């Protein structure tokens, strides 16, 4: 059963209450280190801390996830830092907690450490299990040809701070079977912060990886990884920063499979541009976007989660994907989302094995298997070659503004549900092919209309009432033969006109168009009597 404790508090979310949890440091080599370590606190939050401006659709998912850990920049001082000077194949430091063995620098105690210079080797953190370690990269370049360039072997919480005005680089060729399979690898919680720049390259595996929580709260970060760019096994949270990610696997990933309260990805802020061979965002449990600007180009799913996916804020653009959004429980509650896909735009399915849209229209069968797509707010635009909005279960819309373009093939539909489409609010237009066209349920509280009306890319689609008043107007992006529209301006039983490039089609609200799938989860026809 999920604990009602959400992830560590994002600073960008206003109105939250911080609960600092002081950490007792292990004995270290100097009084300066002791003072620095004891001043570091982790941030946690309880259910009462969730920002009331986050829509309930996302807030309840956050509340059901385990707490996370973030080390904040104002919880330590650079004045307490011990200096480590990197010098080619070696390094030097006056700190008793730093040992240098050839090209390997090892930090053995809690504290703040400032690294500058160039090292052809490895930086290893092997501190006590309850230690807090801050690594300040101050124009530091670390390149490893064997394993991780920065590796946390033991510690409780580690932060990598990017000093203001600095440019830093970490490069590795970590192999797939190495214990530390990333250029920056932490067997602990890991926070990346600051306002400097960091370039991470790993030609063998992941870019930045943590076995516990990974939090990005600042910095200009560029990652180019053979596999996943960012991976937090227990959780991955981005609160701030400018991230440019290139991944041979997933761009942002959390894959804890042993705890239903972990394995989630939360984007609360920042600017993310990601290109991935697999998924843009891949979460074993929940994927949540409550803020920030996210741009994803992927060969597989734009955003994939095994449990739930919620977008309640921010600006999300999926410029290329196989399927745009995929999960068993998809919630669009705010923000601005644009999806382009070669198959389904939005796919509410129980996982990749039950994809109802792959390979042509009828995929997973016509039975309602319980998945949900719920739209309660925000703006959503979908341009799909497969189904536009697809659910193996139901589609429910209570608010928001949705525009669906496509598909053009007759074995897919702009709207496709197994359990019916219920609309009680918001505005939706679906401009697609006729073969599998589906309309909202006849029991929907809000009026809707469906028309067999054809056009091509660039065609103007206009909807007017009996008095000739224009209710809505759209410009098609591809060839189409069906138009479905619902808004508060439509009244059941009334006559409306759908005009495409001057050609008018008269329709009665609540009556399914001829030749399509009709209403209510793929039923063949019908309509209101």
Q: The biggest beta sheet, please?
A: 23 strands, mixed
Helix content: under 10%
Q: Are there runs of 5+ residues with pLDDT below 50, and where?
A: 1-48, 351-364, 521-529
Number of strands: 45
Oligomer kind:
single chain
Mean pLDDT comes to 87
Distance between the ends: 46 Å
**What is the number of helices?**
2
DSSP strand content: over 45%
The whole-angstrom Rg is: 26 Å
Shape estimate:
elongated
Structural class of the secondary elements? mainly beta
Model description:
By secondary structure, this protein is mainly beta. It is 3% helix and 50% strand. The chain contains 2 helices and 45 strands. The strands form 5 sheets. The chain has a 23-stranded mixed β-sheet that branches. A hairpin with a 5-residue loop joins β40 (460-464) and β41 (470-475). Residues 1-48, 351-364 and 521-529 have low confidence and may be disordered.
